[in-house]
Specification:
With 100 residues, the chain is mainly beta. The chain has 2 domains: 46 residues, no CATH class; 33 residues, no CATH class. The protein has a 3-stranded antiparallel sheet with strand order 1-2-3, with no helix packed on it. A two-stranded antiparallel sheet has the order 4-5. Strand 1 and strand 2 form a beta hairpin.
Length: 100
């Protein structure tokens, strides 16, 4: 695995090569707008509309278009291969728990 850095205007593109597959990650600049923090998105990451749905999972922040919040999920379904879970999923043993 090796990484190359390219400076593009105010954004940094990081190309990581893992198993001969290129994964491109672009960084964006943070800035203060009044008492809020804002992110300056590169042109190729801009959203249509005036609002986005935001969610934080650990230290990862997700932004999704508010007008079509299921589009990313539906598009992601095509990324699964035909053999994904072809054998079903493994049954796990039932756990006995104390009543509260």
């Amino acid at each position: 695995m090796y990484t190359k850095l390219y400076l593009v205007k105010i954004y940094i593109k990081v190309y990581t090569f893992i198993n001969k597959e290129v994964i491109c990650m672009t960084t964006a600049k943070l800035f203060e707008n009044g008492r809020s923090q804002a992110v300056r998105l590169p042109k190729e990451f801009r959203f249509n509309g005036d609002e986005v749905i935001i969610n934080k999972i650990g230290n990862v922040v997700l932004l999704m278009p508010k007008d079509d919040e299921w589009a990313g999920f539906v598009a992601g379904l095509s990324l699964f291969t035909d053999d994904f879970m072809c054998n079903g999923r493994e049954d796990i043993d039932h756990q006995e728990r104390e009543t509260l």
